[in-house]
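Exam revision sheet. Question 4 asks you to relate a sequence to its structure. Input first:
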Amino acid sequence: MLLLYSCWALTMKALRIILFSLATASALFVATRVGAQNETKSLMDDGKIYREIDSLIHLLSNAHEDMDKKDILNKLLYKHLEGNHQSQDYGKQALQTAKLNNSRIIIFACIGGLALISMLTFYLFKSHRLKQRINEQLKDRVELKDLELSELIKLLQEEIEAHKKTQSRLEAINAELNNFMYRSSHDLKGPLASIIGITNIAKDSNSKKELFDYLNMISQSTGRLDVILETLVNAIRVADSPVEISLIDFVKFTTQIIKDLENPKHSKNVRIEIDADERLQLSTDKKLFITIMQNLIDNSLKYKKTTIEDSYVTIRAKKHGKGIRIIISDNGQGIPEDQQPKVFDMFVRSNLKSTGTGLGLYIVKKAVDKLDGSISLQSKRGIGTSFHLFIPDLRISASKGSLKSAYINN
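Answer key, structure tokens:
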């Protein structure tokens, strides 16, 4: 704006100088013309020339005054424009200040908004984390409660199963007891009835020979009664007595059991062999072990084949896992296949010629179960029988707490 005004002022001054120069040139031209005309015209007087010059000078003066006035106006206009320019500069400065203030306000507002957004975001983040933590805690508690509930349900199911097993065992024991009482009373009643009948007959006899025969018959009946009572007592002892653990030498202990079973009627012409390491030892209940070995070896001796001379009973034993494996085999009469599934039941006689109580193998099975062992058989009629046993070392079982009601004798 100032540049335009300066250009305009310089132009006006140049125009004024040009006009003044034109006026001067006009005056000189007139004077020259007048001098030339004096030669041809003598009628022009000096006054007219002077009047024309005065008029021209007056015109030039007026033009000059007009130029001065225009110069003054130009100066005023310049000052006005300069004032407007200053006003415009002030306005621009004020506008810039306002813009700057507005920018600062906007910046502060943005900063405040960002701070508010940041605080809100942080609050929402903290709230989300807190909610997430609470949800995780609730989830952990729910999982813990579910786990506790599952464990409780599992314990209840185990208790129910144990209760069912106990109930089934009690029912089986009750059934066995009822059968035991019935069969025991029946077996006891037979010898007693024989003794009573023979005694009544003997009262009417006067012959010493008849009385001697009657006494022999009574002796046989009482012997049979004694065997029955001893078997019943042994069965009760196996069921009720606690396990007492003792260390035994297998070979020596089994040899002694065989000697106790020597009977000319049964062991005659029977070869008994023990195939085991002399150093083999076992921690078990002596009474239960005697009951098991005695009944199995006695059965092999009783039911040998009378048609052959080379009868044998072989007892093999060796270490197996956490106990010993025993195999008692013979070449005797064998057990019929249809009798084998119930051979360990109470009062079962697998041989028609048997004179026993039918409790021998039942007692063996109960004794093996009480020792946490196992027993099975392989038999074929007319060829022989093999009993396979596993008897655990009870010191190992007792140390792990897997055997109940066990007493260790050092």
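Marking note for examiners. The chain has a mean pLDDT of 76.
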